[in-house]
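Structure in, sequence out. Go:
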């Protein structure tokens, strides 16, 4: 399918998740470029939300915000989920390939930018009393995306609901383990670099 057609297909996926994710897997109606587009759009939306939401509803201190950290955090969560889910389902007879997981999860997060990006602009047009719906719809976007991730996991790997619940919980645990291993690895690398630099300085200044 053409790139723009795979982009438009996201609306079928988010409103008809079982058929939508099945077609992503078996009919190839989606694409990795489109999925990554939705991930990037989600990252941009969350960054804009922190920066540009009206001050009445924005509890963030703009002076303390770091856009780069926000971008890396969201991207890292996406990568960790895909890797941890692939590792988990490989051991649990999952039918999904890595490319299918990436595609499905990319499409699943689309409700976040779909709802939350317009809310940023609407926040400048409503009063404090009218602003309750901003928080409500923001929560709805997360619940909707979470449900789509759940359905994606079920359909892509051809799991029952019960097995999907177990898989999601193990995937979350796996994300934590991967983060721990990653931090441990970078800590070891940092210590090695510092050790080498110390030896270099000792040799140089003798």
């Amino acid at each position: 399918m053409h790139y723009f057609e795979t982009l438009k297909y996201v609306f079928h996926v988010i409103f008809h998740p079982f058929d939508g994710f099945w077609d992503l897997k078996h009919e190839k109606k989606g694409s990795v470029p489109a999925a990554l587009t939705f991930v990037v759009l989600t990252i941009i939306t969350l960054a804009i939300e922190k920066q540009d939401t009206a001050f009445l509803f924005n509890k963030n201190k703009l002076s303390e915000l770091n856009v780069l950290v926000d971008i890396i955090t969201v991207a890292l969560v996406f990568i960790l989920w895909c890797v941890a889910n692939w590792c988990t389902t490989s051991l649990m007879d999952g039918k999904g390939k890595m490319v299918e997981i990436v595609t499905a999860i990319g499409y699943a997060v689309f409700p976040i930018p779909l709802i939350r990006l317009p809310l940023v602009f609407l926040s400048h047009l409503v009063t404090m009393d009218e602003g309750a719906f901003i928080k409500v719809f923001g929560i709805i976007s997360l619940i909707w995306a979470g449900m789509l991730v759940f359905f994606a996991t079920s359909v892509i790997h051809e799991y029952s609901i019960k097995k999907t619940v177990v898989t999601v919980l193990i995937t979350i645990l796996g994300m934590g383990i991967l983060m721990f291993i990653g931090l441990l690895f970078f800590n070891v690398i940092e210590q090695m670099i510092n050790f080498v630099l110390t030896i270099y300085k000792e040799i140089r200044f003798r």
